[in-house]
């Protein structure tokens, strides 16, 4: 099959002599969502960073559309939208400026109409030109999430996308994920929240770590 999405084959990674995961195998196809689950410190963020092309601390293979991520990194990154668990925005810039910057990194210039409609979609109408440091934690998170709607991608990798988001916002994000998947997008995410998702989805659970 030509379009095989993301394939993780026999992935191994460790930190400070502690194995985070070994022989990890799973596949994420177009039109699917996979949740990476596991307790604090089990390696979810480490895995997502590897799959976002930000870390090479691993052994094994990661393929996108059947091609090695290592050999076709640039091509892969053009199709990927990664939102990490940090704020991911520059506090001194406004939402509009932050998103202009994100879009420009993908070669998308003169994209203000799309950016403004993305900001409206995430509930930030009226805050477009206010410095991000003066926004609430949830609003800052929403600035980051607005990237979903102004940067085209076929794979979303999202690390704790619901952090700091209110209850209504969580349902909205779940709906956005569901719509993206229905349109053939692929989503890989971590969350400690119990996902309420319209379609079936897979859960890949990373190993237990010390109980606290
Ligand atoms: N930059 C780093 N330097 C050293 N150790 C690190 C670093 N980043 C992560 N680790 C270690 O790797 C392990 C896995 O961390 P990771 O952030 O991937 O876990 P996680 O499953 O995402 O946790 P959480 O649910 O708390 O977000 C932890 O033991 C952590 O201490």
Automatic annotation (TrEMBL):
Statement: the UniProt record of this protein carries the keyword Transport: yes
Keywords attached to this entry: ATP-binding, Cytochrome c-type biogenesis, Membrane, Nucleotide-binding, Translocase, Transport
Organism superkingdom: Bacteria
ABC transporter domain mapped to chain residues: 6-212
Family matches, as SUPFAM superfamilies: P-loop containing nucleoside triphosphate hydrolases (SSF52540)
Keyword Nucleotide-binding attributed: yes
InterPro entries hit by this protein: AAA+_ATPase, ABC_transporter-like_ATP-bd, ABC_transporter-like_CS, ABC_transptr_haem_export_CcmA, P-loop_NTPase
Residues in the signal sequence: none
NCBIfam families: ccmA (TIGR01189), PRK13538.1 (NF010061)
Protein name (database record): Cytochrome c biogenesis heme-transporting ATPase CcmA
């Amino acid at each position: 099959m030509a379009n095989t999405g993301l394939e993780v084959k026999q992935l191994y990674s460790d930190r400070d002599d502690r194995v985070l995961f070994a022989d990890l195998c799973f596949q994420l196809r177009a039109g699917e969502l996979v949740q990476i689950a596991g307790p604090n410190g089990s390696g979810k963020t480490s895995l997502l960073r590897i799959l976002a092309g930000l870390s090479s601390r691993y052994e094994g293979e990661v393929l996108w559309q059947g091609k090695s991520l290592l050999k076709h990194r640039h091509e892969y990154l053009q199709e990927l939208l990664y939102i990490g668990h940090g704020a991911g925005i520059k506090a001194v810039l406004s939402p509009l400026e932050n998103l202009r910057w994100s879009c420009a990194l993908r070669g998308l210039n003169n994209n203000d109409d799309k950016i403004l409609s993305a900001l409206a979609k995430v509930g930030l109408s009226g805050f477009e030109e206010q410095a991000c440091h003066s926004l609430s934690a949830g609003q800052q998170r929403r600035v980051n999430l607005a990237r979903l709607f102004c940067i085209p991608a076929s794979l979303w990798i999202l690390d704790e996308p619901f952090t700091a988001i209110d209850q209504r916002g969580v349902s909205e994000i779940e709906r956005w994920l569901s719509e993206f998947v229905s349109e053939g997008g692929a989503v890989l995410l971590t969350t400690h929240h119990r996902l309420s998702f319209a379609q079936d989805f897979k859960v890949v659970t990373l190993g237990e770590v010390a109980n606290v």
